[in-house]
Amino acid sequence: MSTPAHNPPRPATTVSYQLVEDALEHLWDYAYLETHPLSALHRIPDSLEGTHAMHVGPGKALNLCLQGIIKRLSPPHAVCRSVRERRYFDILHGCYVGRETNKTVAWKLGMADRTFYRRRRQAIEMITQMLADLHG
Fold first, then answer.
1. pLDDT digit string (tens) for 63-82?
2. I need a labelling partner for 126 at 20 to 30 A (CA). Which of 50, 65, 81, 94 fits?
3. How far apart are CA 110 and CA 119, in angstroms?
4. C-alpha to C-alpha distance for 10 and 13, rounded to whole angstroms
5. What DSSP string describes 84-122?
């Protein structure tokens, strides 16, 4: 008697800057995100409770999770503690959610290129830490 085929559990994923940046760069490519290492994080579905999105695939779930973390940096939310965090939101939302070029977002925010790229790196580091905290 044969046993039904099943998917073996994925190995544990460590949240890293490179993985988060890669996932953000492919935020709207659900097929890519479906096989992305971050989609294996066991807490991703928990972060979606209350969004009416409990029955989505891993790619869409990772997309929603990353968008939710970015939204937590916007001013109406208590997590946003500074103007700098607002800038992080503007950068992340513009570049990844809004699909604008880095140059366009930098121009809209009145930032020099070097300042923009430094702030963008800091914003991704913050998202990396928030996702790592979520992963537990």
1. 998 999 998 888 665 555 56
2. 50
3. 13
4. 8
5. HHHHHHHHHIIIIIS---HHHHHHHHT--HHHHHHHHHH
Quote the tokens at residue 129: 């830490």
Place of tokens 């992080």: 88
Helices 83-92, 58-71: inter-axial angle, 10-degree rounding: 150
Provide the pLDDT confidence category of residue 122 given band limits of 50, 70 and 90.
very high
CA dihedral 97, 19, 59, 3 (to 10 degrees): 180
Token digits of residue 103: 């140059």
Query: Mind giving me the DSSP string for 57-89?
Result: -HHHHHHHHHHHHHHTTSTTSTT--SHHHHHHH
Q: Tens digits of per-residue pLDDT, 16-43?
A: 999 999 999 999 999 999 999 998 875 5
In this structure, the chain runs to a length of 136
**Are the C-beta atoms of 34 and 59 separated by less than 8 Å?**
yes
Q: Is 100 left (phi over 0), alpha (psi -120 to 50) or beta?
A: beta
Q: Distance (Å, rounded) from C-alpha 47 to C-alpha 37?
A: 17
